[in-house]
Amino acid sequence: MKYTQMKRIILKSLPYLLFHLISIFCQANGLTMKLFPIHSPHLQILPKSFTTHDRQQFLVNISLSRALQVQNKHPKLAPDSIKSAISYLDDNFLITNITIVNKSLRYTAYVIVDTLRDLTWIQCFRCNPCFLQRNPFPAERWSSFTRMSLDDLRCAPHIYYNGSCGFEDSYGNGHTEGYLGKATFMFQADGPGDVDINQYYPNIGFGCGIRNHNFLFNIFGGENEIAGVLGLSPGPRSFINQLDMVIKERFSYCLVPFLPISGSASATTLSFGDDAKIGGDDERKVQTFEFKPDAHHFAYLGAILVNGVRLHIDPIIFKLDELEYQTGFFIGLTSPLTLLARPAYSAVRRAMVDHFKKYGWLPMERTLVYDLCYTQVMSGNQVYPTMAFNFLKSPNDKGEIQFIIPPENLFANMGVMGTGFCLQMLPTDGLSVLGAFQQVNHKFLFDLKNKLVSFIPQKC
């Protein structure tokens, strides 16, 4: 290789290499973020006038639209495959806050957590058009903020925007475009004695949304605190990759109960790097299986069991369709309810109906937002059915790892028409998703580098 070619490569890579060198000196044991469900009273996004039915419909809308978002994400999917327009707020469930610092100044805003994309972006000052927001980020006024050059390795895909690296992305009806920049972000890390300490990471790349169309973060009116999106999918622009020296391509969480009727003020901690730990004991064993982090966290599902009986479900409906993402089974944080492809859901529903038929119970006609509901209350020796997902250890190892869903995560006492409960699962046309409600009180650890996910029951 000629000297001039080598010099050009070194100079082109220098900003990225400097970022990693700075990260080495800045890293602590890890970092953490606090997650809030979007319907939490802490965020005050849902109107106080919302009825129980309104809250149920809101959570169902989020779950169903996430399935469409996975399908719409793939570039080879035909535009007319989306059957209905979706408001962006309805696509997402968990929110966190990010802090950008400039000397003594701090800018903090809430962002949607999106495990399907690698790009983090927020709306910036001088946007046109803008979505309603109390305080867009004043990028050009901050001395610590610089635009990202086209030579930066994080400028992928290579999009030109007014002399610097640009970006664009679509979310259902919403579309954003602007330029990529770099600034210093502040995160919390575990210090001595379980005391949180602030850690600063310079030169973090993110997007400044300048032209933002059809984002309905304030769909219910009032002030909007949401500034944009935090992308946690692997990719050159992702926090996962940018903070690799600290995050080490590992993150974990343990979801607290969400109380879907009234919301929940409790926060869940999303931990990265050395903070992302998992451990068991003689009674609770950590279980691990392979997944595909670069395919929206696709998992190899082998079977579904109800009351210990394997249901007759053609496994082809859980096989990953890498062309259009019309089929597959995914694990994520963005859907409240579990979604099952219709053949699988029908088999689950039949097994549930057969179980409750022993007590002489018949399901309600579908007049509410959920598909399977009963008006009865458990008493005496009556019990809920058990349910489990059996994941393959790997695509080459047919051994199975069983994820058991406890009844409190499977059914919800809705209290809509007096008394009763509903199955917190819904049928979809195509892909399937393990919902956040069904992951409650389980510790999950995602190791993106080794393509492994581990879990254990744990009081969160």
Automatic annotation (TrEMBL):
The keyword Hydrolase applies. Pfam families: TAXi_C, TAXi_N. One of its GO terms (molecular function) is peptidase activity. Coiled coil: none annotated. It comes from the Eukaryota. This is Peptidase A1 domain-containing protein. PROSITE patterns: PEPTIDASE_A1. It comes from Saponaria officinalis. One of its GO terms (biological process) is proteolysis. InterPro entries: PEPTIDASE_A1, Peptidase_aspartic_dom_sf, Plant_Aspart_Prot_A1, TAXi_C, TAXi_N. Gene3D superfamilies: Acid Proteases. GO terms for cellular component: extracellular region. Residues 94-456 form the Peptidase A1 domain. Keywords: Hydrolase, Protease. Belongs to the peptidase A1 family.
